[in-house]
Every structure is written in structure tokens, then in C-alpha cells.
Amino acid sequence: MMTHYEALAVTPNANYGEIRAKYRAAILALHPDKLDPVSESSSSQQQAGTISSFLRVQEAWKVLRDADSRAAYDTLLLSDDGLETHSSMRRRSESACVIGEEVMLEEMEESVGEDEGGGTEKVFEYWYPCRCGEFFAVSETELKEAGLDSGEEHVQRCAIVLPCHSCSLHLRVFFWASIPS
């Protein structure tokens, strides 16, 4: 899995100026308008690879240019892979997808349902509308397993990436997670 730092060819301790310079150079080199569609030397696979690299560079810049999102991303890089469910697959595929939108957990709608096991316990799920008309969803259980703040004193900002249930768009959700002692 390529990190955002690798996509921009910078080290994780690079400053904003270095990141910005590498981003600008990469965008100029990889921009789809620079591709020659009639050139025999560039196959459609090469062009697709270049476009994929271009999108990866754009996503890396979107995350690394902002101090808060960079800190959250760094936290994800330093943490273990977490859940061995579809949540971990979401996190692992984060660098391979383009994030359509970023929200705080508080911006998502909360719904209450019954426990799937037939118990009396209430289950919370958070959802957010997608442009396609469907929605992004995550359960409170998944968030707690990912470290959602359990009222402990030391917390840090974390994120999880959710796929839409219908289209290829993804949503990055930021939340506060407990720091293990």
C-alpha cells in the first residue's frame, strides 16, 4: 500500500513547503491534459496508470496540506490495522480511493435500531447521504472497535473511510479516539 508521503515522494517529516513543491511538480508531470491520446508509444494501460497516479497525488495533497487531516492520517499510519472486518479493508483501501467528502462524526445522522441478536440492547448507526442518493454508514460498534472516545482522559483525532453502498465514492469520517496508556 502506497502512503500519501510515497505518492508525493517526500518523507513523513517533510515540511509544508517541501510537500507543496513536490505536489506541484507531480501534478505538472502527471496531468491528464499532458497525455497524448494518439501517441503509439503510450498504451491505454500506461495512460490509465498515469491517471491513477495523478489521482493518488491529488488525494495525498488534499490530506497532507491540512495540519489536522495530516495529523489524523499520521495517526492511522502509526496505528495497527485495527479491525479484521470490512472496516480494516476500508482503511487499507484509503490510499487507493479518492475521498469525495470529509465530515466529523457529529455531522452524521444518528439512528437507533434493535440488537440483531434479538436482545433488548439498542444499536446506534451513523449515516451520511451520498451524492448518488444512497448513503455511507458505520455502526457505533465499529467505531468503538476503532477506538471511539470512551470517556478516557487522553484522546486523539482519528478517521475511518467509508464506501458508499451503491457507487464508488468514499467518505472520510473524523472522530475522537482514546489513546492507549
Automatic annotation (TrEMBL):
Protein name: Diphthamide biosynthesis protein 4
Location of the protein in the cell: Cytoplasm; Nucleus
Origin superkingdom: Eukaryota
PROSITE patterns linked: DNAJ_2 (PS50076), DPH_MB (PS51074)
CDD domains: DnaJ
Family of the protein in this entry: Belongs to the DPH4 family.
UniProt main location, coarse: cytoplasm
Occurrences of domain DPH-type MB (ranges): 99-176
UniProt KW keywords: Iron, Metal-binding, Nucleus
Domain J residues, every copy: 3-77
One of the Pfam families matching this protein, by short name: Zn_ribbon_CSL
InterPro entries listed in its UniProt record: DnaJ_domain, DPH3/4-like, DPH_MB_dom, DPH_MB_sf, J_dom_sf
